[in-house]
Amino acid sequence: MLIVANWKAYIEDFGKAKKLVSLSKRLAGKTKNELVLAPPAPLLGAFSPKNKSNVAFAAQDISATTGGAETGETTARVYATAGATYAIIGHSERRAAGDTDAIVAEKLAHALAQGLTPILCVGERERDTTGQYLGFMREEITIAIESLAPKERSKVIVAYEPLWAISATSGASVIESNDLAEMVLYIRKVLAELLPGKSSRHSLVLYGGSVEPDNIRGLAGSTSVDGFLIGHASTDPHLFSQLVKQLD
């Protein structure tokens, strides 16, 4: 399993970040799963360059620009130089802030050009009864990777994050295992149409959306998902430890 811990902007204190990184390194030494940390950019720069552990680092986002007179932008090359090996692209929160499908596609290309493995986030806002959300999903994936070379397409990891299941609270909708299993199969079908030969069989599909210690094992065991993109729970040392241990 690939476990990607997206810290978002929850961790703003260096001391807390250091403790989480140390915990993750200890967990990585004991688990069979691969751990990837996605801290805010300055914290990634503080911990990633000297990292010699089994923990990998990811950018939470990258700029659509490739450099130059672009104040405030952080390019894919900067992240690669700082030691990141993954980049989260098209997260729902970035899309809500203005990233269009075209911008997402551009960022994917920039990430790949710098040797970063992109984690492409896709997901519907609501699940209708007529299946229109499937067409929406197909379009998001297709627009994102259709301009890439065939070999580049196969390097993209897809993270399914349905907006209606993200940050679900008590009484809110949480995805059922059978629904996730069907969506994972559908994503693989779309990828099979876009990737050359049988290369789609090696593509990873992750899930993100209210993943907790009490549901992660069930979601992993019966859905053929390859891992998880975890948000707030990954910033709580106890919860994150339990999440990792549940998958061992």
Automatic annotation (TrEMBL):
<comment type="pathway">
    <text>Carbohydrate biosynthesis; gluconeogenesis.</text>
</comment>
<dbReference type="InterPro" id="IPR000652">
    <property type="entry name" value="Triosephosphate_isomerase"/>
</dbReference>
<dbReference type="GO" id="GO:0006094">
    <property type="term" value="P:gluconeogenesis"/>
</dbReference>
<dbReference type="InterPro" id="IPR013785">
    <property type="entry name" value="Aldolase_TIM"/>
</dbReference>
<keyword id="KW-0324">Glycolysis</keyword>
<keyword id="KW-0413">Isomerase</keyword>
<dbReference type="Pfam" id="PF00121">
    <property type="entry name" value="TIM"/>
</dbReference>
<dbReference type="GO" id="GO:0046166">
    <property type="term" value="P:glyceraldehyde-3-phosphate biosynthetic process"/>
</dbReference>
<dbReference type="GO" id="GO:0006096">
    <property type="term" value="P:glycolytic process"/>
</dbReference>
<keyword id="KW-0963">Cytoplasm</keyword>
<dbReference type="GO" id="GO:0004807">
    <property type="term" value="F:triose-phosphate isomerase activity"/>
</dbReference>
<comment type="similarity">
    <text>Belongs to the triosephosphate isomerase family.</text>
</comment>
<comment type="subunit">
    <text>Homodimer.</text>
</comment>
<dbReference type="InterPro" id="IPR035990">
    <property type="entry name" value="TIM_sf"/>
</dbReference>
<dbReference type="GO" id="GO:0019563">
    <property type="term" value="P:glycerol catabolic process"/>
</dbReference>
<protein>
    <recommendedName>
        <fullName>Triosephosphate isomerase</fullName>
        <ecNumber>5.3.1.1</ecNumber>
    </recommendedName>
</protein>
<dbReference type="GO" id="GO:0005829">
    <property type="term" value="C:cytosol"/>
</dbReference>
<comment type="pathway">
    <text>Carbohydrate degradation; glycolysis; D-glyceraldehyde 3-phosphate from glycerone phosphate: step 1/1.</text>
</comment>
<keyword id="KW-0312">Gluconeogenesis</keyword>
